[in-house]
Amino acid sequence: MRFFTRTSIKRKQTLIITLTSGAALLLACLVLGTYEILAFRQAMVSNLSTLAEIVANNSTAALDFNDPKSNQETLSALQAEAHIVGAVVYTREGQIFAVYDRGDRIDRFVLTNDLIAMSDQAVM
Amino acid sequence: MTKVLAITGLGLWACAGHSSAADLSLSEYQVKALFLFNFAKYVDWPDEAFDSPNAPITIGLIGENKFGDYLVHAVEGKTIGGRPLEVRSIKGAEELPQCHILFISSSEKMVAELLKKLQDLPVLTVGEQDQFTQLGGIIGFLKKDGKIRLDINLKAARQANLKISSKLLSVADSVKGKP
């Protein structure tokens, strides 16, 4: 505090202005950064939901008529989106019906009853 | 990235709510029965084919019934586009126009004559004989590698004034008469 009382008014003024604008800038950065992250997440979720909806809609006939091969073709259209590493279509019983896997990276788990119940609710 | 996967997986699950015929323990005729029911989801009949907006979709069976009770149970309580489904054994030719889907069993001998009679009526003819679609039938069941596949005659469907969804065509093994 002693440093502050002894310096000239000019320096005090500069210091105060620098500090306040610095604080304002930091705050603005934080707000903007948070907003960007939230907006990005939201956009990603809505994009992926749209894609999943489209794939789901195009998979109904393949499931109804037990044709995993044509479902595979539907899923492989996802390769246009480089960030999607994989997709799996399950039958009602939770068995794997068709898989799209970019570069062998995804876990192919069989759905358990808990998961089926959970996702049924999510769909509702 | 796991999050991305989880979301996609969840979305895709939406489609699995459909009755899938993927269960390997089903017999040939159980699969065919499910297919018959599923056809109704992918075919559009003209409005004249129904008496009222809530009139049932009738699945007619001609020849020997190899489904047992399974088909009746499979469609029981189900509705498609607000219409219930009913299964009926067809005894005489006068009952034919009341069907929306007609399954012609392999025991039936007069297939060509039957198809000729039906060609301009909005009846989805389904059969399991070889050459069924060549004879003018709309959907033929084929057996390939132990699986039931579909053979579709679009020209016959057009003549019968039926609209078959492109989704159904995409799972067919062969489609005749593409425009």
Summary of the model, kept short:
The complex is a heterodimer of chains A (124) and B (179). Chain A is mostly helical and 124 residues long. Chain A has 4 helices and 2 strands, in the order H-H-H-E-E-H.
Sheet of most strands of chain B: 8 strands, mixed
Helix content of chain A: 55-70%
Q: What is the CATH architecture assignment of chain B?
A: 3-Layer(aba) Sandwich
Low-confidence stretches of chain A: none
Radius of gyration of chain A: 27 Å
How many DSSP-defined strands of chain B? Answer: 10
CATH topology descriptor of chain B: Rossmann fold
Number of domains of chain B: 1
Tally of alpha and pi helices of chain B: 6
Return the average pLDDT of chain B rounded to an integer: 84
Helix and strand succession of chain B? HHEEHEEEHEEEHEHE
Secondary-structure-based class of chain A equals mainly alpha
Strand content of chain A: 5-15%
Structural class by SSE content of chain B: alpha/beta
Question: Largest interface here, residues on each chain?
Answer: A-B, 41 and 35 residues
Order of helices and strands of chain A: HHHEEH
Distance between the termini of chain A: 63 Å
Strand order of the largest sheet of chain A: 1-2
What oligomeric state is this? Answer: heterodimer
Which value, in Å, is the CA radius of gyration of chain B? 17 Å
* Alpha carbon gap, first and last residue of chain B: 43 Å
